[in-house]
Amino acid sequence: xxxxxxxxxxxxxxxxxxxxxxxxxxxxxxxxxxxxxxxxxxxxxxxxxxxxxxxxxxxxxxxxxxxxxxxxxxxxxxxxxxxxxxxxxxxxxxxxxxxxx
Length: 101
Description:
This protein is mostly helical and about 100 residues long.
């Protein structure tokens, strides 16, 4: 058991004891800060860059999809006009065939 001299002690699993004083506390805070910065630069920043790239890709795909939908609507309108023209042409051909026979 450590002597009771006004310092705080932390007991670790396995029986280890660490005296907490200003020096140890600063060291622990420094290690934790360095670890957090390391995680941020090695993991978080690359993930953020990947997420931003995916956002840009999704935006481009949405733009392309919108254009395709507009093109499809235009094609549908043109198809209706072609069908009406074909129907009219068939009626004229049927009329001509009826006159010739």
